[in-house]
Amino acid sequence: MADRVQVREISNDEGNRLLKMVRRSSGSIVTWRRAQIVLWSAQQMDVPQIAALGFTSEDRAREVIHNFNADGFDSLYPKYAGGRPPKFDAEQRREIKQIALGRPTDYDLPFSTWSLSKLGEHLVAKGVVNDISHEGLRLLLREEGVSFQAVNTFKRSNDPDYEPKKNRILHLYNLADGKIDKQRGDPDVVICFDEFGPLNLQPHPGKQWAVKGGGAEQPRRTRRATFTRPHGVRHLLAGYDLSTDRLYGHIKMKKGRTQFLEFCRYLRTLHPPHVRIAIVLDNFSPHLSTKKDQRVGEWAAANNVELAYTPFYGSWLNRIEAQFQALRYFALDGTDHPSHAEQARMIRRYIRWRNTHARDRQLTELINRANVA
């Protein structure tokens, strides 16, 4: 019978040093994992227990223990040759971001959210990176526009196809951004579509520059009260073309399947028929083909168009949402239009201005904040 693999007897000072290495929130993920294995072994855990608890192989656990018995704490630190480890390339950063935005349960891990330590350990175990510190991982995620946020109501999708839909949309965005090469069947152009509204004739809240404390000479602007709204509503059907960074919109009285298809035909005319287009959109019923009405699917198949639906409660994946936030801020906040025609004129003027000033600093900052919110 083979001898049981166990770490050598360690002193109290060594035990406290191991515990401090495991508890710290910065430093090398590799060092943290190795110190964890040694500490568990010092607590009389067997190799199979350590492997199961640390989500690693038994051979890896034995190797770490043998190395510690031979070289002590020096074996816990990774040895890099040639100076500083290389920076992560675009492919690694993309995969790290994608895993961080997913759920641990998607990778068969028994916890509900990622911590920096758990995420870093998973990245090393999966082979995405050889090593990364907790602080380095936090900075990388911040550079990629990812932050640790509270979960909002309905933020978790109940779509059984959540992962395939999410991954397809992220793949389309990487194509549009030029981060990956086009594969067979991939579109040439990606357009994000959604409806904005309903657009009421009402005074919208907003902010203005005013004298502190008010004053009779320059009174602060006020909003009128509305008790009845007899003028009905309108809806903005909008598309955001990622290939040209342009926003398009039509204002309609209704947003049914007929109006949706009319706008899709318009989006199709923006590019030649041989150019394949992907439209990212949500699961609103007029966007779908049904047993009684197959027009949407038939139109897409006949016009070289891919319809990429977001998961249920996954509208955050649609990049046009950030454009709507900018439209609301610049074109509607603080307004009180007397007619739908005037309100529609203001929206159309804003869209023309936005397409002309797509690199406006304030507009870019607002959209960037909305994209990571």
Keywords:
elongated, 13 helices, Nucleotidyltransferase, domain 5, 3 domains, alpha/beta, 373 residues, single chain, five-stranded mixed beta sheet
Description:
42% of the residues lie in helices and 10% in strands. It is α/β, with parallel strands linked by helices and 373 residues long. It has three domains: 12-76; 90-143; 164-206 and 231-372, Nucleotidyltransferase, domain 5, CATH 3.30.420.10. It has a five-stranded mixed beta sheet, with helices on both faces. Helix 2 packs antiparallel against helix 3 and helix 3 (47-54) packs across helix 4.
> Which term fits the overall shape?
elongated
What is the averaged pLDDT score?
A: 82
* Terminal residue distance: 58 Å
Q: Helix and strand succession?
A: HHHHHHHHEEEHEHEHHH
CATH topology of the largest domain: Nucleotidyltransferase, domain 5
Strand order of the largest sheet: 3-2-1-4-5
Give the helix/strand class. Answer: alpha/beta
Low-confidence stretches: none
Strand content: 5-15%
Using only CA atoms, what is the Rg? 28 Å
CATH superfamily of the largest domain: Ribonuclease H-like superfamily/Ribonuclease H
Proper CATH architecture of the largest domain? 2-Layer Sandwich
What's the main sheet like? 5 strands, mixed
Overall strand count? 5
CATH class of the largest domain: Alpha Beta
Please give the count of helices: 13
What percent of the residues sit in helical stretches (DSSP H or I)?
40-55%
